Amino acid sequence: MSKPEMAAQGCMSFPPIVCEPQVVCRDFYHPRPQPVIHPIEIINRHHFVPVPQHYFTVTERNVAVPPLPTVPVSTLPAGATPYSAGAVPGALPQAMGTQPFFRK
Q: What pTM value is reported for the model?
């Protein structure tokens, strides 16, 4: 094709127009350690509270008791004892500080 033919078809070449470049930013993120210090202060508080401790003192004493009245067994009615009324035959008297002891 000749130039006149190209011009007739509108294909004449024009000098190129160069535009300002478009800026395209691509961001890349790379992790990198960054120390962050958080100070912590520990306070130990000691509280003293009263706690009852019970102590017991023990004293011991000996007391003399008057002897039991002696009554001849032969003078007692049948089934009676020389001890207090209602006592169980064969039991030790309460005045001696012991619990009744029953014989089988």
A: 0.28
